[in-house]
Amino acid sequence: MHFLTGKKLRHALFILALAESPIVLQMLHLDRTYLYLVFSLAWALALYVFVEPPRRALLIGSLVYASTALLSLPLLLYWLKLGPDEAPGVEPSGHALWEFIFGVGVREELCKAVGLSLVLVAGRAIGLRFSAREGLVYGGTSGLAFAAVENLHALQGLSHLDEVERAHGITASPTIAAALTRLVLTPLAHACWGALVGYALTAPVSSRWGRSLLVLVSLLVASTLHGLYDDAASFANSIGVGTLLAMSFGITLLLLAHSNEGRAPAEQMA
Fold it and tell me: Are residues 199 and 132 in contact, defined by beta-carbon separation less than 8 angstroms?
């Protein structure tokens, strides 16, 4: 039983909790919509195990997830009401790349970062100091939360398709097809873009000006990747979507490697 170290036992419990989560969510009568939450939890577990942040990251990450889930979509919907822009999940007219990046991308990345920023500011106010590795996890967690609530909102808009299927005898459900397309791709993509912003908010920077510039650049890069990804998806460009997802994950790996350079041996074994 030497294999079951404290860390391995925690990971085993996380996996078991993930496996049991569909049962709990179905008991809450969430029906098939629980799939979005289950996949979001799966990516969160993978991110936590892969990055191996300090133990407190589990609690703080949960706060980031909850705050993002509660704040991001209402803020996004309110923003959309202020102008003539389209509702979430609806493609911009003309497939304009500019609108995908500086409309959809900037809008969603800013709304996604609100909950993350609030938790980090509150933590610093009570004397906590966050490492860049933690920032990657918390930023990725905010992306997973945003993807979950965005997908749930999109599914509500597609619910009428089941009635069409029953009335006309369509053999394949468009709702399920759309759900499966979003289940695997968008959570990881949003996590990578969120991790970029989380890193910028926690990386060791000597001045406020440097911090502000780093956050601005991270938001611009995340919004650009987001917009290009959505543009490729709107044209059903599978190669483009896969390439942009790989690029986003590659950037996350580079940031993780950079955050490891200054990591103390004691922290590496935590």
Answer: yes
The DSSP code for 131 is: -
Q: Which two tokens stand for residue 161?
A: 């398709």
Residue 176 contacts by C-beta under 8 Å, 6 or more apart in sequence? Answer: 32
Q: How far apart are CA 146 and CA 142, in angstroms?
A: 6
- Both tokens of residue 269? 């074994």
**pTM of the predicted model as reported, rounded to 2 decimal places:** 0.82
Residue 257, amino acid: A
CA dihedral 74, 182, 194, 138 (to 10 degrees): 90
Element (H, E) at 59: helix 57-81
pLDDT at residue 168 greater than cutoff 60: no
* pLDDT category of residue 161 using cuts at 50, 70 and 90: very low
Mean pLDDT on 17-33: 76
Contacts of 2 (CB under 8 A, 6+ apart): none
CA-CA distance, 33 to 40, in Å (whole number)?
12
Taking alpha carbons only, the member of 60, 68, 12 closest to residue 40 is 68
What is the number of other CB atoms lying within 10 angstroms of the CB of residue 110?
Answer: 18
CA 210 – CA 195 distance, rounded (Å): 18
Give which of 24, 22, 66, 32 is closest to 158, Cα–Cα. Answer: 32
H helices present in 95-236, as ranges: 97-99, 106-125, 132-158, 160-168, 174-202, 208-234
- Confidence band for 238, pLDDT divided at 50, 70 and 90: confident
